[in-house]
Design brief:
The chain is α/β, with parallel strands linked by helices and 146 residues long. Helices cover 25% and strands 25% of the residues. It folds into two domains: 5-73, no CATH class; 86-145, Roll (2,3-Dihydroxybiphenyl 1,2-Dioxygenase, domain 1). The protein has helices at 13-24, 38-44, 98-114, and strands at 5-10, 27-28, 58-60, 68-73, 86-88, 118-124, 131-136, 142-145.
Length: 146
């Protein structure tokens, strides 16, 4: 079995950790035992001060199934299109009628917009059994809801 962690570069780790925890129904990961916060832990393993964020910087699946996601602070802002993006599944899948999938996807896009996401476009082609919405997270990373 292969396990992996997803790492997302960002300028504000706690902002993105809180957003993605809500978006994915994850939870903020508490610091390791015996550490008051994540920065105390990172200092203990030698991470330089200029690479430390403020607050929480990782999230985990409460069911223990999905990957841990770590938000790594970097000095530069995002400038190009993502080479990898997340598809957030909110539609119930292809067995759900298209009309109902659209309602579920629209509702999730509205919920995530209240948390700081920006809708960029609706992905829909007449005659195809597909509907999705493209969005940006609070730091401009692209993702889709389908």
């Amino acid at each position: 079995m292969v396990r992996f962690q997803l790492v997302i570069d960002c300028t504000d780790p706690e902002l993105l950790a809180r957003f993605w925890a809500e978006a994915l129904h994850y939870r903020l990961e508490p610091p390791p035992a015996s550490f008051d916060d994540w920065n105390d832990y990172w200092r203990s393993v030698g991470v330089p001060e200029d690479e430390l964020g403020v607050g929480f910087d990782s999230i985990v699946d409460p069911a223990g199934v999905g990957p841990r996601i770590w938000f790594q602070i970097v000095p530069e802002k995002k400038s190009l299109k993502n080479r990898l993006h997340l598809d957030v599944r909110a539609s119930g899948g292809r067995s759900t009628p298209l009309r109902e999938r659209k309602q579920l996807i629209d509702a999730e896009a509205a919920r995530l917009s209240t948390l700081g996401a920006t809708v960029t476009r609706v992905l829909e082609t007449e005659g195809l059994d597909h509907y999705a919405i493209a969005l940006l997270d609070p730091e401009g990373n692209e993702f889709d809801i389908n």
